Amino acid sequence: MKWTAIGMVGAVLERKVWHIGNGPTLYPNMYIVLVGPPGVGKSVALSLSERILRAIREIHVSPSSLTTASLIDTVQLSSKTVINPHPMVYNSLQVVASELGVFLPTYDSAFMNTLTKLYDGEFYEERRRTGKVNHIRIEAPLLSIIGGTTPSYLNGFLPEGAWDQGFTSRTVFVYSGERIRRDPFKPEVEDTSPDEQHLIDLVHDLNTIARLTGKIRWDEKVKDAARQWHLSGEAPVPMHGKLIQYNNRRLAHLIKLCMTLAVSRSNELYITLTDYNQAFEWLIEVEELMPDIFTSMGVSGDSRAMEDCWYAVYKIYERTKHPVGEHVIVNFLKDRVPSYNISKVIEVMVRSKMLQMVIVHSIPHYVPTRP
């Protein structure tokens, strides 16, 4: 529920709260996708989030299934005006997709590029020719997404090069592989589901947050901490090859999380060191599990298997500081590539300098050598 709550706060803030720094203006909207096998609770969390957001009258919640054209039409209809102290006119839409495959049934480059542009809040313009020319201009759009899916869907949906594109770099993929099992015959000691009063309180709090407007302010200590982290290389950096483009947006994700935490704590629009530390902890926590998504995708092409294998070797080497035995790599690859291809994959990884072979007690071992 933590990341769906983060998404909900960003959704109700829309463009009413913003950060201005040495770069483009950032808003608290986020693309958050819960990833895990069936039965881990994704749909429960997302259904509850949609119920809460639809109870907030000022929020425009998108239909589940849209084409590129109908998405733009829906964004255009989701217009509102806020006084702060002068009128602010913008278009903001929230997507809640308990099954991401309904919202994104196939990978369409035009649709994905549109999602990228709407995330950034940039001016949008297009002309369509149907029976007549339809000219659409949206000066200040914004889109937020909270969705859920399985690793196998991502494996089939996203082509190999998609991890280098704008949509995935802007998306926080929240992985959980832990399935909660309960005795179906044992009566519950207490009802752990949210009661109606609790939901009413949540809606009230989000309505209060939705009325906030203005530029976010930062404590000087927070500025120093964020500046030092960014300029020193943003350690710890996710090392999986598919997260290279995501890494370029980690600072933006951190700023958005800080804004979310600040407004959840008070109405002051002021980010404290406590907010920053919590946001940093949440970001690192979710990033540590992101590579597990690729591992759980199952059998795939050799290139993807090599990336996953390199990351697995890297994690073991970082933990033990010792070369990794060949048997470990073989066991990792046997479920990802055909058995007859394992030796070839290891050979290619060595020749491409992803791995370096060393002999330990007459047995081949490997260390990760790619930066």
Topology readout:
Layout (H helix, E strand, L loop, with lengths): L1 H12 L3 E2 L12 E5 L6 H13 L13 H10 L1 E5 L3 E11 L2 H4 L5 H12 L3 E6 L3 E6 L2 E9 L1 H7 L8 H4 L1 E5 L20 H15 L3 E2 L1 E2 L1 H12 L12 H4 L2 H16 L4 E2 L1 H23 L6 H19 L3 E2 H8 L8 H10 L3 E6 L2 E6 L3
Parallel strand pairs: 1-9, 2-7, 2-8, 4-7, 10-11
Antiparallel strand pairs: 3-4, 5-6, 12-14, 13-14
Describe the fold and architecture:
This protein is an alpha/beta fold and 371 residues long. It has 2 domains: 290 residues, Rossmann fold, CATH 3.40.50.300; 67 residues, Winged helix-like DNA-binding domain superfamily/Winged helix DNA-binding domain (Arc Repressor Mutant, subunit A, Orthogonal Bundle). The chain has a 5-stranded mixed sheet. The chain has a 3-stranded antiparallel sheet with strand order 12-14-13. Helix 1 crosses helix 8. The longest helix is centred in the C-terminal third of the chain and has 23 residues. The protein starts with a helix and ends with a strand.
Report the CATH C-level class of the largest domain.
Alpha Beta
CATH homologous superfamily (4th level) name of the largest domain: P-loop containing nucleotide triphosphate hydrolases
Share of helical residues: 40-55%
Low-pLDDT stretches: none
Distance between the termini: 35 Å
Count up the helices: 15
Average pLDDT number: 89
Total tally of structural domains: 2
Examine the coordinates and then state which fold CATH places here, giving the name of the CATH topology of the largest domain: Rossmann fold
- The helix-and-strand class reads alpha/beta
User: Major beta sheet, specifics?
Assistant: 5 strands, mixed
Rg, nearest Å: 23 Å
- Element string (H = helix, E = strand): HEEHHEEHHEEEHHEHEEHHHEHHEHHEE
Global outline: globular
Determine the strand fraction and express it as a percent band: 15-25%
**Quantity of strands, as a count:** 14
Q: What CATH architecture label of the largest domain applies?
A: 3-Layer(aba) Sandwich
Order of adjacent strands in the largest pleated sheet: 3-4-7-2-8
